[in-house]
Amino acid sequence: MRKIILILLVVLINNVAKAQLDSIPVINHQYQYQEVVNLDTSFAKDKIYKSAKVYFVDNFNSANDVIQYQDETEGKIIGKGFFEVTQELTFTTVKWSVYFSLSIEAKDGKYRYTIYDINVKQDWYGTSQHLYQDLGVADIYLNMKKGRLKKETVILYDKMTTRFKNQIIAIKSDILEKGKKSDF
């Protein structure tokens, strides 16, 4: 009986850990977040587009530097974003500089956001040796399974995915709020 309980516990823990590793979806063979958000039909394409543009202005240091492509007729904005997450270790600090692309495509009554081209530049500093490494999401998954900093990689990964999830919440709330009719 104890063996069965132990086996079930190991399987459960393994499934929970795997669920964490798979939290960035793979779409078209690429790690990315993507969703079509349906709104009320009163939200016209041009209003959604303008709200998305204001989102870029409000959520990035310089919208002019971030926005790489914009076409009001097409209803599409593409920008390149960046944020950092860090983890303190005993004698060093690991910093991830996370780079990504963000596309928002507007149509009447709906829009689609896509966060893609996710790349991480890992920087270790605070030791006598300065290490620098480029990582893709697949590399991060591998480092979480094996590697000398498994726990730290999982912590940094959680911080990164939390930032992406907060970004998605901000996209949704900003477009919804800024797209509502105003007297001003």
What does this structure look like?
This protein has 184 residues and is of the alpha+beta class. The chain has one domain: 2-Layer Sandwich (Alpha-D-Glucose-1,6-Bisphosphate, Chain A, domain 4). 42% of the residues lie in helices and 35% in strands. The strands form 2 sheets. Strands 3, 4, 5, 6, 7 and 8 form a 6-stranded antiparallel β-sheet that branches. Strand 7 (110-125) and strand 8 form a beta hairpin. Helix 2 (45-59) crosses helix 5 (150-179). It is elongated, with a radius of gyration of 20 Å. Residues 3-22 have low confidence and may be disordered.
Supply the key terms.
184 residues; alpha+beta; Alpha-D-Glucose-1,6-Bisphosphate, Chain A, domain 4; 6-stranded antiparallel beta sheet; two-stranded antiparallel sheet; 5 helices; 35% strand; disordered N terminus
What is the rounded distance between the termini? 69 Å
**What oligomerization state is this entry in?**
single chain
Q: Helix/strand-derived class?
A: alpha+beta
Helical percentage = 40-55%
Strand content of the residues, in percent?
Answer: 35-45%
- Structural Rg: 20 Å
H/I helix tally: 5
The largest pleated sheet is described as: 6 strands, antiparallel
* Shape descriptor: elongated
Please indicate the count of domains. 1
In the CATH scheme, the class would be Alpha Beta
What is the number of beta strands? 8
Mean pLDDT: 82
Query: Mind telling me which CATH architecture this is?
Result: 2-Layer Sandwich
Detail the poorly predicted runs.
3-22
Query: Secondary-structure element sequence?
Result: HEEEHHEEEEEHH
CATH topology-level name: Alpha-D-Glucose-1,6-Bisphosphate, Chain A, domain 4
